[in-house]
Amino acid sequence: MVNKIMETAVFLIQCKDQRGIVSRISEFVFRYNGNIIQSDQHTTDPENGQFFMRLEFCFDPDFVSHKHLEDEFGILAKTLNAQWQIHYVRQRLRMGILVSKQDHCLLDILYQWKSNELAVDIPFVISNHEDVRECVEHYGIPFFCYSMDGISKTEQESNILSMITGTTDFIVLARYMQILSESFITSFNKPIINIHHSFLPSFKGANPYRQAYERGVKLIGATSHYVTADLDEGPIIEQVVDRVSHRDNVDTLMRKGKKLEQIALANALRAHTEFRILRYSNKTIVFS
Question: Is 232 labeled as catalytic in the residue annotation?
Fold first, then answer.
């Protein structure tokens, strides 16, 4: 007997909470000879809340095509008045990277990609400096430098957009020390994930470690979030913290913070690429 090659997919669903949602979605998977691998759901409150669900399942693509599966689920989703997405796990996301001079987050991402811990394709790394070219090209990834020298921010962003359009599914800002304009964010119109070197909403903007030192904090943190037009205000995906004391200075805070930045960004990228995030208002539901 020949073993069937099954395909894995993920549904992400959100709608008004109502009775029977889980039953109806599970029955849908059963109807198409699918098998549920993992199911997780969350309701914001028991009376008038929103319902969120991540359902990972496998199915036989010879039994039901992608199009038929999506068309039929669209009918079910309409009866639930639900927003939904489907992602096929074998279709790897394309992740573009923007970075400036600091390379600690970039190097951590490249290591995870090379060791297959991060299941993405990386079509390019873009920087506004030449500093990281050698390490990027060592990994065989195309590197492009779009300097700000002699041109306006508008021209620089236009050059970047013309290169990345159609080549990437999302962008990660791996310590890219330029503020993206609202025009860039709108034109790109795909997810952008940032790592901010503080425990937001504290210490926004520049020099957060100095701000933390001057306040004498006992905890420092790093925050990975989706980028919106409002600086450092986008939906938070992941935060990690570490204890510090009066013995720490700005340099030791920065050294400890770099490791936190790597961890927070890695966790956020894994959640995004494994389709574990639903955005709601200015928040995220992150399924473990």
Answer: yes
